């Protein structure tokens, strides 16, 4: 909740700062900047690159601030670490009361810590000492060293002077003390507002993991090998899918018989999500490379078939007539008119197919694989290596985005006439 | 002298609802080599159907087309076509578009380079020959389409409203170009148009077609095309005879349109 509030505040504040400050420097007068009607004119809405930069920086700042990152100067309050104490008041069966102090040492999990030495003190309730890991809690059998035990009817009536009964809890200086149903003390030091590394590690931990896994590897393969294998499967699956799908789509676009024969198959298979095929493919082909490639082949096949078919039907009939009137043969029409004319559609399909394949390969590796980006994430999550999980997700996202950018570049290079006819 | 003869062409096709359309009925024509014939008519009179049959894209249900004493059965390089929207190949440069026909015929570059360059000169696109066609204006694209058709050296050129999508000024310039090319090359041309003026200006012969069923209504022989070659076409339009013919044909087409409207109203009433 507080994070959402801070995020919104940064969003609004950055908006006003950029509008006030930076826009003064932007004196460029292109056509769009001279438009007065921009609200509702989608073409006049251009992404403000300042907003993009601030948006990305904000995410990292928030991430760092709420994980205690060393890279970020401002932090949300972290968990309490150090020495603290609270007192409990014990009432003996005869109504006599005595206070005792509990000395608690809160340490960072993963570091060594000793239980502090304490003087038992006066009275029938003796002082206690405990050690607690940050974000954890600790149960204290406080009457172990007391002269009157709970079995004999003793009970705690107050913590730090605040009355308490079993099942209730009270706040103390650096945390919270609860009484269990049986009346023993459960101390939880203050957690602060930062995320525990097991939920969300600091950015530097994730980056350190990248370096570590890149050089030492994880689950027998280095990071690059994991990513390479995922990409390799996608590319091989996609290429086979395109190599079968495009000719099939052309055939469906050019022949009654092919159209009739494959229409039911394609129309049936198209809405089946490739993820739904994973179990069947595992049964048939196992979890090795061939299974993955068959799955990605199937994921790419229908998309490429449909886009190639749409590419053929998108050829203006006048172009076909023109080519025949100029003396082209069927094969020449195919080679010089239909194939180039269908390229824009095929590229659109290829972009979709690559996106689907990338998503499918990660999902397939999550289910079962020996190597790959998805497998790395899945295994890491089983061992609660959250830093590897986050690193994997970020890399998967970057690669997916990179694939799309490359496809767009290729499209602009190979099909410059797209959208300009 | 070889001719294009259209012999008793009828075109009738069934509709999915059981009815049928008589698009053309018993159309006969003879066009001599080098004639420019413009075809006018209200919408639905079958002029485009007729052109598609001559081009070989459609098979008539009755009758036949003969060109140079052989039967027309399908599209062929001997009958070139110019479309309303150019129908250019966007993935080719202007020069590649113009040389498409010769290249498809398997000719080598040195065999067609001279013709293609000459045609690019004639249509005024020499400076644009390496440009992509989608970078050209509509009028330039249509000139590419004309040059592409001529580069293939067809016997007959079929034009389906080739200037219909152009603005008035460009259209006037292009009409002059069509006349010039016709005189220079001596090709047989059939030109379909919606514009009565264009039909009068360009047509050595003018065919007015009537709808339902599509048939030949009236034929004119006109002097304006010969007069107009190499001249300012606006001067030709000032000729009183031109104005008189225009009014005559316009009212003829108006009557046909009104007849169609009346019939539709009767049918719906």
Structural class of chain A: alpha+beta
Strand content of chain B: 15-25%
What kind of oligomer do you see? heterodimer
Tally of strands of chain A? 9
Helicity of chain A, as a percent range? 40-55%
* Cross-sheet strand order for the largest sheet of chain A: 3-2-1-5-6
Strand count of chain B: 10
Helix and strand succession of chain A?
A: HHEEEEEEEEEHHHHHHHHH
Distance between the amino and carboxyl termini of chain B = 53 Å
Shape of chain A: elongated
Beta content of chain A comes to 5-15%
Query: What's the alpha carbon Rg of chain B, rounded to whole Å?
Result: 19 Å
Describe the overall structure.
The complex is a heterodimer of chains A (421) and B (269). Chain A has helices spanning 2-21, 49-65, 203-216, 223-254, 256-269, 278-285, 289-313, 317-325, 330-367, 373-382, 386-414, and strands at 82-91, 97-107, 128-133, 138-140, 155-159, 162-163, 169-172, 175-179, 185-189. The longest helix of chain A is centred in the last third of the chain and has 38 residues, at 330-367. The two termini of chain A are 50 Å apart. In chain A, helix 6 (278-285) crosses helix 7. Chain A is 51% helix and 12% strand. Chain A has 421 residues and is an alpha+beta fold. In chain A, the strands form two sheets. Chain A has a five-stranded mixed beta sheet, with no helix packed on it. A four-stranded antiparallel beta sheet of chain A has the order 4-9-8-7, with no helix packed on it. Chain B has 269 residues and is of the alpha/beta class. Chain B is 42% helix and 24% strand. Chain B contains ten helices and ten strands. In chain B, helix 4 packs across helix 5. The mean pLDDT of chain B is 83. Chains A and B meet through helix 8 and helix 9 of A and strand 6, helix 3 and helix 5 of B.
